[in-house]
Amino acid sequence: MRPVRAVDRALSILTCLGEADCRLVELSRSSKLHKATVTRLLASLLQAEMVSRNDNGVYTLGPAIAVLASRLTNGHRTLIDVLREPMRRMWRLTQETICLHMLVGLSRTCIEEIESPHAVRYHGGIGQRMPLHAGSAGRILLAFLPPAEQAGVLKSPRLGKLTEGTITNRRRLEEQLEQDRRRGYAISLGEVFVGAVGVSVPVFDATGKVVASVSVHGPATRLTPTALRRYASVLLKEIPVNPHAVV
Predict the structure, then answer these.
(1) Residues 112, 99 contacting (CB under 8 angstroms)
(2) 3-state SS class at 239
(3) How many domains does the chain have?
(4) Alpha carbon of 119 to those of 96, 179, 218: distances in Å?
(5) pLDDT at 212
(6) 216 and 147: one domain?
(7) DSSP letter at 22?
(8) Cα 79-81-85 angle, rounded to 5 deg
(9) 21 and 133 in one domain?
(10) Structural domain span for residue 145
(11) How far apart are alpha carbons 246 and 204 in whole angstroms?
């Protein structure tokens, strides 16, 4: 079956907006599409409320995306229900933001988030979609993917750099993934947002396939490397990573 060119282009725009809010010129550059083409596609996406535009000409994902994300969340209530109490225990212990990310295709989507009570805190947002290679929540999923699927991600031309801390070199990323897999958790130091750090552990389904990750996220000023390693040990005890614990 041949892909539909217009759909591919529209998805490219949505993917760009999933990574960052953009103006028309930025969308054209990021999607590698002519401005006239982007303008036409945006008209349809705006009408469908898949995209929104503010008074400053900045485009963001629209409310229709949130509806779709909620459908995704509702489709995984069992997973959320199983992990809610362990996540709340981690929140009470750390007082930092606790996130649950679901593996969706070759990316990760936040389906549950308990925000830190601190004024300065990490906020991703339910429905946020990010690439697997950037950040601990995605990297731990990538680390436990079957070899063929992992290789497909690693040879993708979209190993984009979100910050100076993002690992985009394939050989270095493979070494990091091996370390993450060996110790059972991943640590991120400013790979997605400058100044934000995190630690994540994997969650498996009844067949032993990795399906999600649970993370502690916060500012580097509070979550020092020592604290991240300490919380990694607690996460490994608190989060039911047993393949038969989550259905």
Answers:
(1) yes
(2) coil
(3) 2
(4) 11, 33, 11
(5) 93
(6) yes
(7) B
(8) 115
(9) no
(10) 69-238
(11) 7
Q: What is the mean pLDDT of each run of 10 residues along the chain (247 residues)?
A: 79 82 89 91 91 90 75 64 92 96 85 94 87 94 92 78 90 95 96 95 88 95 96 91 47
Amino acid type, 124: G
Q: Which two tokens stand for residue 196?
A: 């934000």
Q: Position 47: which residue type?
A: Q
Q: How many angstroms separate the CA atoms of 205 and 247, rounded?
A: 6
Return the CATH number at 13. 1.10.10.10
Angle between helices 35-47 and 5-19 (to 10 degrees): 80
Say yes or no: 180 and 202 in one domain: yes
| SS3 category, 129 | strand
Q: Are residues 123 and 38 in the same domain?
A: no
33 Cβ contact list (under 8 Å, min separation 6): 9, 12, 13, 27, 41
Half-sphere exposure of 200 (CA within 13 A, CB side): 34
Q: What is the C-alpha to C-alpha distance for residues 213 and 110, in angstroms, rounded to an integer? A: 9
Q: What is the reported pTM?
A: 0.71
Q: What is the CA radius of gyration of the chain?
A: 18
C-alpha dihedral (120, 22, 104, 136), degrees to nearest 10: -40
For residue 4, count other CB atoms closer than 10 A to its CB: 10
Type of residue numbered 238:
E
Please identify which residue in the block is written with the tokens 């308990």.
114
